[in-house]
């Protein structure tokens, strides 16, 4: 299993990812599309907007499948 840093450095921009980061008191996840990266941070486009995450706070990261299609409404 590769480290999250190796995965994020090698992953193509535009793939759907989940990135877990440490925050005071626990962890939080960002789910969305990988939009940018540098040595110090990555950018993930979530459904709430673009978030920038510090690489030093990253605990885990992986590619995730596309979101499921919306369910049809009941009549």
Automatic annotation (TrEMBL):
Residues 12-62 form the Histone acetyltransferase Rv0428c-like SH3 domain. InterPro entries: SH3_Rv0428c (IPR056934). This is Ferrous iron transport protein A.
């Amino acid at each position: 299993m590769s480290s999250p840093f190796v995965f994020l450095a090698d992953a193509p921009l535009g793939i759907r990812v989940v990135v877990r980061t440490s925050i005071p008191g626990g962890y939080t996840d960002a789910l969305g599309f990988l939009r940018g990266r540098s040595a110090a941070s990555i950018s993930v486009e979530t459904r709430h907007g673009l978030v920038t995450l510090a690489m030093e706070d990253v605990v885990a990261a992986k590619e995730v499948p596309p979101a499921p299609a919306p369910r049809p409404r009941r009549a």
